[in-house]
Structures are given as C-alpha cells and as structure tokens.
Design a protein that fits this description.
Layout: E1 3-10, H1 13-31, E2 36-40, H2 45-51, H3 57-65, E3 68-73, H4 88-98, E4 103-109, H5 122-125, E5 129-135, E6 147-150, E7 156-159, H6 166-182, E8 186-191, H7 197-210, E9 217-222, H8 223-232, E10 239-242, H9 244-257, E11 265-269, E12 275-279, H10 296-308, H11 313-328, H12 346-358
The structure holds 3-isopropylmalic acid and magnesium ion.
Residues 248, 252 line the site of magnesium ion.
Length: 361
C-alpha cells in the first residue's frame, strides 16, 4: 500500500528546506522501494496570501486524507499586522487542534561531531540525549475564555485561561510513560504545582498512572527549577513531560543546549499515530532565499515520519545514517560550522544526504 504524505512548505526558508526533504523521499521511492505519494498544500502566511486563510479548508481536507504531514515552517514579519485569526501561527495551531495532535515529541540530541557548537561547556553537554514531550492541543494555548476587553474603569485587559482536563493529562502522561519505558526509564513531569491548581491536578494524575509503568521512575519538578537544571546539568534528564506553554519554552531552551537548533526534528502525534513532522526551528526570514538554511532538521523529521507514522523503521534508519555520514564527512551549513571556514548551501547539503543514501545501496 502506498503512503500518502502531505508536504506543507510554509513560509520563508520553509520551501527551501522542504525541497531537500522532497529529494530524500524521492530517492527512497526510486532506489529503496518506498511506496509513497507526495502531495503539496499551503499552510501559514503563504496560505493567507494565496487562499485568504492560514489553514484553508482544502489543506485541512487533504491533511485528513494523509498518513503523515511534513511541515517546513510558518510565519514572518509581513503577516504580523493582520488580524489575529489570520496570522500564520493560527494555521499551525488550528491544524494541531483539528487533527488532535496532542503529543509533541521534541528530542534534543547532541551530535558528537557538533559538540563545539554548544554555548555550554563540552563536558556539560557531551552525549546529551533528552526527549521533551509537550502537550500540544490544550492548556493556556486553547483555554477559554480568552481575549482583550475593557475593565469597568475603562482600562483594557488581556486574559487567557489555563485549563487541563484529567483526560488530557492522562493521555499525554501515558504517551510519556511509554516513551520513557522505551528509553532509559526516567520521566520528569514539569509543572507549577506550588502555585497553579491546573498543575496540582496534573501532578495527581501523573502519580495516579505511574503504577501502570513499573519500569519507569517518575519524578516532579517545578518549571522554574527545570529551566535552571536544563542549563546547569541537562544530562540528569531522560524524558520530560509538561503542558503546552511550559513545553514551548523548555523545548527551545533544550534545543539550544545542542547549539544547533538547525539539527532538531519534532513529531506531533494523534492517538492513532498519524502525525505532523517539522523542524524545531522557525521560518528564519533573515536568511530566506540565500541558500543558508540547514535542511537537516527537516530531513531528520522525515526519518521520524517514516518511523512513527508509516511504520518504515528501516527507511528511517537509512536516512539517519545518511545524515550521520555527511556530518562525519565534515559537511556543514553555516549554522553548525563552528570555527570551520568552508560551508555548503542548503541544496548542496540535501544533495549530499541523497548521495550518502545511494551509497548504502
Ligand atoms: C512552536 C512554536 C509555535 C508554538 C508558534 C509558532 C505558534 O513556537 O512550535 O514551538 O508556540 O507552539
Ligand atoms: Mg516554540
């Protein structure tokens, strides 16, 4: 059976990096027997310009028919001024919510060849391998009521609602326990239970399901301490699980520990394994169109897509090995060049990965 993959290039560097992922997928199809169809649709600012909405109905309907989605990146300053529900980010939030992609997996791995790219001391980050699991369709991002209103005294106020149902906490908790069981068996749940009732319930639910996973050791940490521990001694963590907003902040922090946010893939999964895969980095308007973007996070997102949504673990390993080969060969885009003088372009990096794939034949 042929897999249906929906490609969503998005804005700025998005199309440049997705073009390289496209090359990789087509190589797997031509030379390694991957049965897949690639379709394309608009999401984000490009969708606003072309179809008048950041998540057009046509994109959503294609997404529902797909087995997996690959996203480049959305957003840019040119859409900052338009009305709130047409902003590119709303398209991303809407597709997460419409498809029920509640489990966001963000690995932060330090590739040994890139150890000097981190701003932390090498001994603090050497061998770093953390998985942050962020709840993605609830919490303060989606809670109601929300808005900007005028108080009785005429002063305006902005407000949002942080709400988590026990069912939402339990399903992200179970996803995290299962992930931890497959890794080193340590799960740290991050909350703000000393202040927030929603966190108090979060902690209670996590404790309540822990008994079902005897192989996993559960601990709890307040989010402020977790931010500090991530930069002080990040290797103490294996899997971290947290709510939407805390996860947004902590995952950027964890990504930067590796010094190469251009290397990190992510997956957002629903209950049945369908998922949206995207690099952790953004649309980088400042370097768009210059061939400077690093396509490896997107290519590694393809590997996650193959493994988690298509059940093509062997193809995924091939892609990961090809990326390891180009790094071992010393090929670098500018963001991961460190002190190395010679760098290659986005397209040259994609071509190098394809060549490394073919070399495995
Ligand atoms: C992320 C991004 C998004 C988020 C933005 C673009 C809406 O920062 O995926 O982490 O806040 O979730
Ligand atoms: Mg973010």
């Amino acid at each position: 059976m042929s897999h249906r993959i929906l490609m969503l290039p998005g804005d700025h560097i998005g199309p440049e990096i997705v073009a390289e992922a496209d090359k990789v997928l087509r190589c797997l199809m031509a030379d390694f027997g991957l049965a897949a169809e690639l379709e394309y649709a608009n999401l984000g600012g490009c969708a606003v310009d072309a179809e008048g909405a950041p998540l057009p109905a046509s994109t959503l309907s294609l997404a529902r028919q797909s087995d997996a989605l690959l996203l480049g990146a959305v957003g840019g300053p040119e859409w900052d001024a338009i009305e709130r529900d047409k902003r590119p980010e709303r398209g991303l939030l809407a597709i997460r919510s419409e498809l029920g992609l509640f489990a966001n997996l963000r690995p932060a791995i330090l590739f040994p060849e890139l150890a000097d790219a981190s701003s932390l001391k090498p001994e603090v980050v050497a061998g770093l391998d953390i998985l942050i699991i962020r709840e993605l369709t609830g919490g303060i991002y989606f809670g109601k009521p929300r808005g900007i209103r005028s108080r009785d005294d005429g002063v305006r106020e902005g407000y949002n609602t942080l709400v988590y149902g026990a069912d939402e906490i339990e399903r992200i908790g179970r996803a995290a326990f299962e992930a931890a069981a497959k890794r080193n068996g340590r799960l740290c749940s991050v909350d703000k239970a000393n202040v927030l009732e929603s966190s108090e319930l979060w902690r209670e639910v996590m404790e309540g399901i822990a008994g079902d996973y005897p192989g996993v050791e559960l601990s709890h940490m307040y989010v402020d301490n977790a931010a500090m521990q991530l930069v002080r001694a990040p290797k103490q963590f294996d899997v971290m699980v947290t709510g939407n907003l805390f996860g947004d902040v902590l995952s950027d922090c964890a990504a930067m520990l590796t010094g190469s946010i251009g290397m990190l893939p992510s997956a957002s999964l629903d209950a049945s394994g369908r998922g949206l895969y995207e690099p952790v980095h953004g649309s980088a308007p400042d370097i768009a169109g210059k061939g400077l973007a690093n396509p490896l996070a997107t290519i590694l997102s393809v590997a996650m897509l193959l493994r988690y949504s298509l059940g093509e673990g062997e193809q995924a390993t091939r892609v990961e090995q090809a990326v390891a080969m180009v790094l071992a060969d010393g090929l670098r885009t500018a963001d991961i060049a460190g002190s190395q003088a010679k760098t290659i372009s986005t397209a040259a990096m994609g071509d190098a990965v394809v060549a490394a794939l073919r070399a495995q034949q």
